[in-house]
Write a structure and sequence with these properties.
By secondary structure, this protein is mainly β. Helix content is about 5%, strand content about 30%.
Length: about 90
């Protein structure tokens, strides 16, 4: 998605979106407001966890490094079978 700060218009290039259930993309905090090449996107579990608590939570099984210039997935980093996380955040 791009934002034109002068006109207030926004555009979404939907062919960038991977065929996965993902969260809103983030960039490292020091890059906010600047053109950046990579975005990092938390990936939801493909199926709910086995417990009721797991089904009612929004945990992630890994994250994606996505190249905004090339429009493609660079790498998927899984957290492992017994691990999950909240939203991906870089400081």
């Amino acid at each position: 998605m791009t934002f034109n700060m002068t006109t207030g218009e926004s555009t979404l290039q939907d062919d960038y979106i991977p065929e996965m259930s993902v969260e809103f993309p983030v960039v490292p905090q020091q890059d906010i407001g600047y053109k950046t090449r990579y975005a990092y996107i938390s990936k939801f579990f493909d199926k709910p966890l086995d417990s009721e608590k797991g089904r009612n939570s929004q945990y992630f099984e890994g994250f994606i490094k996505f190249d905004l210039q090339e429009g493609k997935l660079v790498k998927y980093i899984p957290f492992g079978e017994t691990k999950s996380s909240g939203e991906t955040f870089f400081y």
